[in-house]
Amino acid sequence: MFGKLGYDNLPTLAMWKLNSYASLTAGQRTTASRGFDDLLAWHRRTQLDDYADLLRSIQKRVASGNVTEADIQGWREEVFARIDPIAVQAAPEIAEVALSLSAQQIASIKAEFADDNEKLRKKWMPSDREDRIKVRTKRYLERASFFLGSLTAEQKQTARRMAAEAPSSEDVWYEQRLGRQLDLIVLLERMRAERMTKETAVPLIRDHLARYRQLREGPDRDGARSSLAAGDAMSAALFAQATPKQRQHLNRLIQDWIDLTQELKTAPGAQAELSKPRP
Fold first, then answer.
1. What are the sequence ranges of the domains in the chain?
2. For 52-66, 139-153, 158-172, 212-226, which range has the lowest pLDDT when averaged over its residues?
3. What is the pLDDT of residue 168?
4. What distance in Å separates the CA atoms of residue 163 and residue 3, rounded to the nearest whole number?
5. 28, 102, 171, 201: least buried by Cβ within 10 Å?
6. Closest to 21 (Cα-Cα) out of 178, 216, 181
7. What CA dihedral angle connects 66, 78, 273 and 7, to 10 degrees?
8. By three-state DSSP, how is residue 152 classified?
9. 35 with 217: CB under 8 angstroms?
10. Model confidence over 185-224: pLDDT tens digits?
């Protein structure tokens, strides 16, 4: 979870990223900027209490000292389920911008996807198996350190062993990423070719966004499921080895996130948004 500064500046960051992909016109920038601002205001007004409730339930389970793979899987699914209301809220504004994209802008988005993918492939997917395991181990250790603080020698050994035994998660993750990007490009091209109305486009955009919480259908689906399960198993194993100090670190981290949700609601300017009537 990012901090207050990142949350408050999400519209600016999203606009920068979108413009870098599609070189928006002045009119498109106005529409997109308004949409991002409205989405953040809605999110601040309606979603933060729900996030705090989820975090409190996680905190309570962590305090019990018994966190299982099933717990971690459930939390992951709970987090991804929060995509659905965002997809519903964002779809109309996204559809409006998407319908205005030119063929050249869609081609630019496709090219930017390819460039990003190549960079990620080089970073996370070295061809040599031992190098791949080293990169995977580093990723596991960094994630575990974020949640637990400094790791013990036993935990580092566990992470290395499980990284070596894990399925080739990078390949299935990469295929899922490519597939979702292709789905988006196909949808954008279809919207343009068929000259869709906004009324027709909105549910298609909404459904596309909602699918980001699911594994994409295809030959890599089972591999992706196995990869997620391996990550859940690793997290549970490291938590089982956690020291009292590490458990305190995790509890404090979760509490910081809970406090952040309340701070975001009461930040300067937020009260004006909170007082607006709900749609």
1. 4-274
2. 212-226
3. 73
4. 30
5. 102
6. 181
7. 70
8. coil
9. no
10. 999 999 999 999 999 999 999 999 988 876 656 655 666 6
